[in-house]
Amino acid sequence: MVIILSIEGVHGVGKTEATKKLESEGYAIMKESKITKTKTNLPSQSFYSQLLWITSWFTNLESLCEKYYDKEKKCYKNEGLIITDRSALSGVIYSEGYQKSLLEVFLNTKESFENKGIVFKTVCLFDKKERIWKSITERLEREPWRKKIKEGDKTHFDTKFIEYMNITWQARIHKNYVEEIKKFIKTLGF
What is the pTM of this model? Predict the structure, then answer.
């Protein structure tokens, strides 16, 4: 089996920074920036755009997991840990409408991977809402293109923050992100 540990959280909370630090310590990371963003004229949070994102997430994951696949036994070996910056569930959370349909796609695809020996674990990073919003506004000054994906929309942020708060995660991490993630990894046997 291969364990996929996804680092989740609302945009701006610090997922990418945490995964960069983990990568510098030798952990295998699937970066959000490597997920193919298929060009479309539809809004980034549309059903179609998020469906493409979810599909690309699983395609990238399958590619990373290939080295652990036992072709004879047609399953994954008991030796891998891959950390992902976001999970495919983000595509469901950030979609505008049709979340139930996207959730079904996500769950069915996840089950297909689990049937081959991949185990999914997810931790969610949290911080005070005001601190995250400050981080977002500072990042928008450096990366104004993010406004196109609604990162500067406070109402959008507030909605997504609440959605993340209302999900039951395998772990909620509120501070010392990297150290707490490493503690969680130890509980997985790595």
Answer: 0.92
Pairing of strands 75-76, 69-70: antiparallel
Residue 118: φ, ψ to 5°: -100, 130
| 31-88: pLDDT as tens digits | 988 776 667 788 888 888 899 999 999 999 999 888 888 888 877 776 789 999 999 9
CA distance 25 to 19: 10
Task: Identify the structural domains of the chain with CATH numbers, from first to last.
Answer: 2-187 (3.40.50.300)
Both tokens of residue 133? 């919003």
Q: What does each C-alpha distance from 125 to 17, 122, 178 come to in angstroms?
A: 12, 10, 10
| Beta strand residue intervals within 98-158, DSSP E | 118-125
Q: What is the pLDDT of residues 87-129, one digit of tens each?
A: 999 999 999 888 899 999 999 999 999 998 899 999 999 999 9
